[in-house]
Amino acid sequence: MLTWSALAAGCALLCWPGRTAASRLRALPGVSTRTRRNLRAPRSSAPAWLAAVAAFGTCAALFGPGPVLAVGLLGIAAWLARRSRARLRTCTGALAALAESLRAVVAELRAGTHPAVAAESVATDAAEAPAAVLQALAGAVRMGGEFVLPAEAGPAVRRIPAEVLGQLRAAWELARRHGVPVAEVLDAVRRDLDAAVRFAGQAEARMAGPRAGAAVLAALPACGILLGEAMGAGPLHVLTATPLGHLLSIAGAGLICLGMAWTTRMTGRVVL
Fold this sequence. Notes:
It is a single chain. The protein has 272 residues and is an all-alpha fold. Helices cover 79% and strands 0% of the residues. The chain is built from twelve helices and no strands.
């Protein structure tokens, strides 16, 4: 009963409402850039950390701190893995949106539009991150200076890797100093982005097997505990009712958390 109660508390904290509704609304294609920037998720009545402290204190007072800490570590491992996957998907989506915006800018340039006007016109209908990049590019074209993002750029711009921004900066410097057509250099950057997005999608699909194997390995200790209960060894009583069992449960959950973090980091490096 102890483990199930602590597990239920951890699952409740993992399901705590976040700021995803505004993100989904901002991702709609029919929503303008100004409307996307004005969308904000409502603030919750109580902070998430306060709910976490209250849940931990209640469970620790009723069942002891060891199993609660172990379940908390397992919840942290699951949250880290989920957050890493979400970051990879967000970064890939930002790269795809930037590539599509650059495709539109290149089409405008080849139609004879001024580079600054082309970048600004595409930025009005682009997502937040590509819009900020294109606005910076338009400013660099009008001023004839370096391509620099504004200091007040939102967090969406940080989803774009620094290497991609460096490619854009190098492309603009090449066009500004040596007279290379802006459409050609931007199209080259766009092709690199398309290739990176395709590679990330293929690598993400190929990492499904290793991630599933890591999840199975992380679940093996729980299967061992259930097997011990079926055999009558009583591992749950040892883990929940003895000081040594508390230490062992915390140590085991910590090792599982480290293993999941290491696996997530390794698979994330392969994708991007």
